[in-house]
Design brief:
It contains 14 helices and 14 strands. It has 389 residues and is of the alpha+beta class. It is globular and about 55 Å long.
């Protein structure tokens, strides 16, 4: 139906032959099942997030402070440093600002040239997370260039490549994000000289076990917050509008009853899962889904496929905004459950509500089909032209 990445077979209603299988060509294990993914994500002691030990990393500072690739107790200590910014009360207090921003962005929309990602789904969450971090949201065009560069590859990496090639690929990925890291490093240095509001300032002054974070820890942590803090919401907004548009009866129900928006967002996260894959490493030999896996093996958890597992979801290839329960893995599970999930849900709910108020006849343009993120690891619209009347 859509021109999505061909590797994302589950979007075409296809099922894997095995829910856990070894990829001989690429050298890692693919996990496609929902209960198997839940088991892995829920047990960090058996399945580590520290995937760096399998790769030839020449510079440890590249991963230092990256909470995505850290296990407890260090993960818990670092996450606690910023968790205050994502509590229910703090997030709820952002409601007026998010509604205001949505209105301002839609004020600038031209009725005959409305592209959802460019005009709303990208700028809204990036402004919000930039303001939370304490960096200029006016730099958002720079952020987009840098983040797009990070996710432009359409290739799957391979553990079967020789170390020289792996090092070359790692260097290329590092160079792609170097401008972002340098940018955050400069702002962190400014915070050290002159305190200012925001999470970046909090990280600069934070202590763990009586010691300040290193520059690398601050920058890597801030980069995760900036990138993950907007890209999920950007894809969530675009995916939800696209999925509803493809199911007119459900779109009409949401238009009539805005109380259905949260459920529509949750079903969109299941149906078109933004971060389609998560990585873990076995600490010791394990049996998963009846398959024996040795120690120190990379597991690629295809949560996009797990969210279509018929063992967990009835009619998994059907969008059903009344689905209840809906235990999707769109925000992960366990200790690494997405820190910004409450904020993403709030941004999605408010933006969709204002969007439908402004444009009651909103629909996709048959003459301008959507484009999708090129990476096989992401499922999200890159552009979504819309008609408003």
């Amino acid at each position: 139906m859509w021109d999505t990445n061909p590797q994302q077979f589950w979007l075409r209603g296809e099922r894997p032959e095995h829910v856990v299988e070894y990829d001989e060509q690429l050298g890692f294990w693919n996990v496609y099942g929902h209960p198997e993914s839940v088991e892995v994500l829920g047990d960090w002691a058996r399945f580590s997030s520290d995937t760096t030990r399998l790769f030839p990393v020449d510079d440890a500072s590249l991963t230092e402070g990256n909470i995505i690739q850290i296990d407890p107790p260090e993960h818990r200590q670092l996450r606690r440093l910023v968790s205050h910014a994502f509590t229910p009360k703090v997030v709820a207090d952002l409601e007026a600002r998010i509604t205001e921003l949505t209105g301002e962005l839609l004020d600038d929309v031209s009725g005959d040239d409305f592209e959802l990602v460019r005009d709303l789904a990208y700028p809204l969450p990036v402004i919000v997370i930039a303001e939370l971090l304490g960096v200029p949201s006016s730099d958002r065009d720079l952020f987009k260039v840098w983040v797009d560069k990070m996710f432009e590859s359409t290739n799957q990496f391979s553990l079967k490549d020789d170390q020289a090639k792996q090092r070359e690929e790692l260097r290329d990925s590092v160079e792609a994000i170097r401008p972002l890291m340098d940018y955050l490093g400069e702002h962190a240095a400014q915070c050290r000289r002159t305190p200012r509001p925001g999470l970046l300032n909090d990280l600069v002054r934070a202590e763990v076990d009586g010691e300040r974070l290193t520059d690398a820890q601050v920058v890597n942590f801030a980069a995760v917050l900036l990138v993950a803090g907007h890209i999920t919401t950007t894809m969530l907004l675009g995916n939800t509008v696209l999925a509803l548009d493809a199911h007119p009866d459900q779109f009409e129900a949401v238009r009539r009853d805005r109380a259905l928006i949260p459920a529509a967002i949750e079903e969109s996260l299941r149906f078109l899962t933004p971060f389609a894959v998560l990585a873990r490493v076995t600490n010791k030999p394990e049996t998963l889904g009846g398959v024996e896996i040795p120690a120190d093996q990379l597991l690629m958890l295809w949560v996009g496929a797990a969210n279509r597992d018929p063992r967990q979801f009835a009619n998994p290839d059907v969008l059903d905004i009344t689905r209840d329960p809906n235990p999707h893995l769109g925000f992960g599970r366990g200790v690494h459950f997405c820190l910004g999930a409450p904020l993403a849900r709030l941004e999605g709910r408010l933006a969709l509500d204002v969007l439908l108020d402004r444009f009651p006849k909103l629909r996709t343009d048959p003459d301008r089909p959507p484009t999708f993120m090129p990476s096989p690891n992401l499922t999200g619209v890159r552009s979504l032209p819309l008609l408003t009347d």
